[in-house]
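Predict the assembly for these two chains.
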Amino acid sequence: MITEKPNITYIENLAAGSKDFKQQLIDIMKKEFPQERTVFIHNYKSNKLLDAADNVHKLKHKIGMFGFEDGYQVAVDFENELKGEKNSLYSEFMLILDAIEDFLKTL
Amino acid sequence: MNSIIIDDEQTARVIIQQLCTHAEDLTVVKDFPNAIQAIKFLNQNDIDLIFLDIHMPDFTGFDFIQTLKNPPKIILTTSDRNFAAEAFEYECIVDYLVKPITLPRFLKAIQKAESFSPSEAVIPETTTPIANTNDENDLYINIDRRLIKIDIPSIYLVEAKGDYITLKTDTKNYTVHSTLKKIEEKLPDDLFLKIHRSYVINVKKIIDIEDNSVLIAKDVIPVSRSNRPELMKRLNLL
């Protein structure tokens, strides 16, 4: 269960009024995020947990960019869990990824 | 200041470029998705500042720093707070930015870079891991900030010792800070085989096999029970 919702406050602050930059960044994330998500799921389901931890590490950046604070900490904890070959936070982490994926479709 | 950006994530590179537009006298000359491309560029161009991601596949930011003879100023960018202590062991490192990077924090780092003069911190003389390469027969290892080329078929044995591995070749041995798993990914499957949790061998270099050991050059290497079937499969038995 996650209570946070993604937002683009960080992206708008970064863009500082530049619609072109905002759109450029959103377009890149629309391309990059699903790829990173797919690679993570593949590695996780192949039981390559250390590789999956690397993928979570990379995904953390976008989770932070979309304003998740508790979600960011879940990602930090999940990355550490995977390095220790544990996975109790998988479902919670997937909810965050799903929320971002759905949100990106609205942008 | 002329700068470059090294980060395997395109989103991060674009964000840093955007942040740089807010800093006076700062130009992004080029950006790179990996450190190897940047090394080639730095061999031919003078740069004042590098924005460097730590966590990259194959060749990390720290590996990269140790290849530089005269490193320019470096601002590390990372999603991991845990490397801060290690980062400041390098005299060239100006600041350490945790992603997502905000504009005020970024500008503070640029201010630091403008007035930065290297401290007397010592660049570690340690050896570090392995770089990827364009030639499939070459492997580059990083020793004392030099990338040394090794001809892969000349390697007959890789031995893991704690956090280090030793690569034994026909002419010389090299010890680098890396893991067996990491080097296995760099070696061709048709030539190399893991025969024990601490050993990978070049199967072409086997002299003989006796019970649970292999003689390779002058080294007798144990073969674990679980790896023995794969080894036997690879042999051209009469």
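The radius of gyration of chain B is 21 Å. The longest helix of chain B spans residues 103-114.
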